[in-house]
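Worked problem 6 (solution included).
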Amino acid sequence: MKDLFGTGLGQTYSLNVSGGGSGVTYFASGRFQNTNGPYEPGPEDFLGKDPGPTEDKLRRGQFSATIGVIPSNKLNIRLSSQYSKVKQETIDNNNNIYGVISLAMFGKPERIVPLNALGQGNAQGNAAFSTVREASFQRTLDETDHANVSLSSSYKLNKEISIDG
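Solution. The predicted structure is:
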């Protein structure tokens, strides 16, 4: 099973900016995350055959911005927005007895049957319905976009009463 994994890569970049004065304030934040691995089999791990197109990647971009306007000492207006985009692709595994990791763990050398001229047999000793290589062609792909915009204001009627909305 250890042959299916290598050294993964993880990167995160972020930037924040804030400022303003007595009448206007602002804040903006951006973040990008990129991970790749550690699942990375090669043809040598599957008896020289294609390991499949599935990758182990996560890409996430997030952005948020807030502007606050205070036109008077009684009125406060705030506009906020957030956006995120996520794309994640992983091997079909997790809580799955037919997933790549489970099949690799349950493979037994004593079940190995040499491949015949038609390519049939059990060259990896798998006890389940597919080989580790066949399972590596299954993937879980998730792409999501989320956006949110909110506007809030508050008005102070006097020193003891205020209205938020």
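Discussion: The first helix runs from residue 100 to 106.
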